[in-house]
Amino acid sequence: MTVNPYIPPLRLENLYIHNERILPSREKGILESRLDDQKEIILQYNQTNFMIEYSALNYIFPDRNQYAYMLEGFDSGWNEVDNRRTAYYTNVPPGKYRFLVRGSNNDELWNLEGTSLMIRVLPPLWKTWWAYLLYVVTLLGIGWIILRYYLERKRLENEVKLKQAEVRAREEFRQERNKLFTHFSHELRTPLTLIVSPLEEIVQKADEFSDKIRHSHRLMYNNSLRLLRLVNNLMDFQKKESGMLQLKVTEDNYTAFSSEMCSLFTDLAESRRISLELHASHPEIPYWFDRSLMEKVWFNFLSNAFKNVPDEGRIGITVEKGTLQELASKVPVIRLSGFTDSTIDYILLDVTDSGAGIPEEELEKIFAPFYQVAQNEHSVSGTGLGLSLSKSIIEMHHGVVWAESGPGRGASFRSLLPVNKELFSPEELFDSWQYQEQPALQVESKEEAAGSEKKGKKIIRY
User: What is the tens place of the pLDDT at every residue in 407-436?
Assistant: First the structure.
């Protein structure tokens, strides 16, 4: 029998994607010519289900031709499919592949060289190299943000810890300072009281001594009183800091009280030829307040005024009573923000001097503990506690205090106090009969008051 010696060539005939035959067309961009003339085809990530049709050009009993194909990079070996003329692939991942096909004639003479086609499957947009680069950059950015956040949080935590440590250190220093001042105050108060009482007796017998000796006694007595007043301020400040400073309010005529306070400075005003004037809007202003504590407020306000006013200057004191609407034009709006009851009366106290004034940047600082403005020729060194203590006392009376000043118009210390008994708790109310029976509770120094009461003298409480 004669054997067919013809080795047939292989041809790639058709390409199908999703069972749709692809014809040469520039619109779809897959085939530009016949499939057999293409060296490479490019498929998108969603075109990975494709079929390739091929044939061996042997026309003697063509149904006995045999085939084998392989997709390099996807198949692990040759697929022998007898006389089937199609190769079908599904879900081919992105990458570069080479499709190979071999064929034989009817007498099984094989064309081992066959034919081939390069196939490149493109990745989706989110799997391209620059997408991965973007992912890496994004992850690095997120990592940097997280690291920056962690480092910033650690820095803020360290700052908070440092500030807390500073606050604790300041608080410990403040407490130790207050304890030291309190200890000194207690140690100094008794001997000062014992010094003041004999000096007061000597001053009262001034006619028995010469002018020079009387002047020296008066000087010692005044400075002893000043030292005692400083000691009392230190003790009151410690009471305020520890929450032990309590109100004992009783009803009194605030106008008469104001006049009494001004009379204590009459001699000083006359000696320096200072005009000291008191103007009250009403002859009687009933007001519930702690007399002994309010005396400290007046004494500190007037003391500061005399410190800052020059000789032959002027100190004006105004006491007005009215509603919020009536006083609104005389009080800065910011000072009225804490008051909402427009049905009650308020007392506006204004102590103004004709001195050089206070720098604007120091107006809020002067009420801080131990803060002192620059001294002038009439000022004497103090503890810087008077105004701070006065502010606390006024706030305990549910009022506000502030200072005003300007170039060439001196300084004004002003306070606004609500006239309302209901603002005070029952523990803070002090009936008038108790006030009369227990005057010692209104005196800072019992020993100092005792000597004056025996002589029937008027007690000045400070």
Answer: 667 888 999 999 998 888 888 887 644 444
Residue 121 to residue 98: CA distance in whole angstroms: 11
Q: What is the pLDDT of residues 171-194, one digit of tens each?
A: 888 778 777 766 777 777 778 777
- The phi, psi pair for 81, rounded to 5°, reads -120, 20
pLDDT in tens, 353-386: 988 888 777 777 788 776 666 555 544 445 567 7
CA distance 200 to 221: 7
Q: In this predicted structure, which of 37-41, 223-227, 352-356 has the lowest mean pLDDT? A: 223-227
3-state secondary structure string across the chain: CCCCCCCCCEEEEEEEECCEEECCCCCCCCCCCCHHHCCEEEECCCCCCEEEEEEECCCCCHHHCEEEEEEECCECCCEECCCCCEEEECCCCCEEEEEEEEEECCCCCEEEEEEEEEEEECCCHHHCHHHHHHHHHHHHHHHHHHHHHHHHHHHHHHHHHHHHHHHHHHHHHHHHHHHHHHHHHHHHHHHHHHHHHHHHHHHHCHHHCCHHHHHHHHHHHHHHHHHHHHHHHHHHHHHHHHCCCCCCEEEEEHHHHHHHHHHCCHHHHHHCCCEEEEEECCCCCEEEECHHHHHHHHHHHHHHHHHHCCCCCEEEEEEEEECHHHHHHHCCHHHHCCCCCCCCEEEEEEEEECCCCCCHHHCCHHHCCCCCCCCCCCCCCCCCCHHHHHHHHHHHCCCEEEEEECCCCCEEEEEEEEECHHHCCCCCECCHHHHHHCHHHHCCCHHHHHHHHHCCCCCCCC
Assess whether pLDDT exceeds 80 at residue 284. yes
φ/ψ (deg, to 5) at 128: -80, 165
The 10s digit of each residue's pLDDT in 113-165 is 999 999 999 999 888 888 999 999 999 999 999 999 999 999 999 999 999 99
Cα–Cα distance measured from residue 308 to residue 410, given in angstroms and rounded to the nearest whole number:
8
Which residues, at least 6 apart from 157, have a Cβ–Cβ distance to it below 8 Å?
none
Nearest to 313 by CA among 278, 280, 352: 352
pLDDT of 206 strictly over 80: no
